[in-house]
Amino acid sequence: xxxxxxxxxxxxxxxxxxxxxxxxxxxxxxxxxxxxxxxxxxxxxxxxxxxxxxxxxxxxxxxxxxxxxxxxxxxxxxxxxxxxxxxxxxxxxxxxxxxxxxxxxxxxxxxxxxxxxxxxxxxxxxxxxxxxxxxxxxxxxxxxxxxxxxxxxxxxxxxxxxxxxxxxxxxxxxxxxxxxxxxxxxxxxxxxxxxxxxxxxxxxxxxxxxxxxxxxxxxxxxxxxxxxxxxxxxxxxxxxxxxxxxxxxxxxxxxxxxxxxxxxxxxxxxxxxxx
Length: 275
Known about the structure:
By secondary structure, this protein is of the alpha/beta class.
C-alpha cells in the first residue's frame, strides 16, 4: 500500500497499549482497522510498558498505532519501537508540515494519519495534508473544543470539519476521518454525529468501544438504494460513450454525477477491508 493511499476504512477501533485484555479483544471486534494507542489512553506510568506490549502485539497481528506528540522524545521512542511493523501511524496534535517531516524521517515510507485538534492545526491543514507520507487527516473534536473554548454540537465544529475536507481533497488524499464519539451508550447521538460528518465529505470515524462499530459501519456503507442508483447512472453514462445523457430514471448524468456513482460502488464493492 502506498504511503499516501488508504483503502476505504469506515472505523478505527482504539485499544490502550498497556491493557493486555483489550489488546487481544480489539482484533476480533469487527472494526475495519485496529488502532493501538500509546498516547492519551495510556497513563504516564505505563508509557514504557505500553510501547513494549504494542510492539509485541504487532509481531502477531497487523494494526495501526497512535504515537505520542511529534517532536518529543517519547514520540521518537514510539516510532523506533513500532513504526516499521505498523500498518500506519496516527500522529496526534499536528500543527505544521515540519512536524510531519520530523515523524516521516523516523518512519520512512509509513502511511501517516495526522490528527488536527488545535486552532494552529486547522489553519495549517492544507500544508499538512500535502506533506509527503500523509494519507489522511483526522478530526480531533474534544481537544479542538478545549483549545477554542467552544461548546459541543455541530455548528461550532462546522468550519473546522469543512476545512479538513477541502484540504484533503486539494491534496488528493483520502477523505478525513471523524473524531471519536465519547458517549458510549448514546447510539442516537453517535449516528447523528457520524451522519453529519458524512454529509460534509468525511469517510470513517474513530471508535472507542466495539458497540459503536455497527452504527458507524451503517452510516458509512452505501445502502441498497444508493448502489442501485449508482449502477443505473453508470450504465446510462457508459451507454452514451461518456457523454452527458439521461438515466432510466430521468436524471441528468454527466461526468461529476458518474464520478459520484463510481465512488459509491468503490466503497460498496471494496469487500473485506485491509487491516
